[in-house]
Fold these 2 entries.
Entry 1:
Amino acid sequence: QSFLKKSFLVTGATGFIGANVTRSLIFNNANVHILVRKISDKWRISEILKDVVQHQVDLSDIEKLKNIIPKIKPDFIIHCATYGGHPYQKDIHKIYETNLQGTINLLDALSEVDYRCFINTGSSSEYGVKSKPMVEEDFLEPVNAYGASKASATLFCQFLAKTQKRPIVTLRLFSPYGPYCEQPNRLIAGVIETC
């Protein structure tokens, strides 16, 4: 009921996390907008496309973002778009273009919008390798381009939150699993499959 008059914008809605977030929002009767690229594979959300408002734009297209985002006027933004989290996603330029520059572009397009919360989806890869269980306050010491790009996006989000008093938070996800995670080589999915 509380979601009824709220507008949500989800990036990465065609990915594993984004598809599940989008479904949850629709289940709660939210007004959901999603950003999709021309080449997006929508198989995870094909049956719920009728329940969302789609906007075809790539996060690298700052001018188009600046045209679309103010019209949506989202109350909440859930930024799940990412590249480089899978072993086969090795293009370093695309990793940084999507994870860092895409985040900067999205926040820039939101600069005139009075949103209530921007949730940046981070990654455990930001921490790098640790000798003991990680805690939120640990130093970010990424050991690959993906982790470095996600850590950079997190730091940029922190910078804007502090200097411009914007309601921006980062959630660092650790080994997410669940529906629409089609990869049996992921930890939890692999254990379940093996059992």
Entry 2:
Amino acid sequence: AVGPANLSRIATKNNITLVHVSSDYVFDGTISPHLEDEPFSPISAYGASKTAGDIAVATTDRHYIFRTSWVIGEGKNFVRTMLSLGQKGISPTVVSDQIGRLTFTSELAAIIKHTVDTSAPFGTYNASNTGNPASWAEITREIFQIAGYGLIVTDTTTDEYFASKANIAPRPLNSVLDTAKLESTGYKPRDWKEDLISYIHKELA
């Protein structure tokens, strides 16, 4: 939270527009879908720190807070992990009670650029791909189907999956973000399945 607070003070002093990327972890995951004005309800230290950052950023007038979730881009991520398992012929057990949508960094960047370039009203915007919400297990089945891996995905619950793992931060079970406010600015986010297909084809190429 210290970094965003410092940036907020600098932005206020110099009349700079501050763009900040937030997370669904500022919520406890009991409301679906999440709206921009939902009260904060973090259930982890990470979520609490992100909440404090959001509050700090909101103190400067010229700010955009982009709340996102389940981000997929460069580096280690869920899709690449599942593709690696598929290439090794491993049939994984995947959590089925966490629900959300993948957000591809290409889409997140496009959302931010559109909002800033069109001088949309300052404030908080949910920023994610659209499409039907899905669990991590369902997304894994999509990944395997697109990649042509004939493997079985076994469902499990979050509690069961982390039962034998120490020091695991609690996760919100619902990460679905309502994008109506973003769409009111004239931007229609891409369906996560469309971006998933493009991402996997690029990875396998």
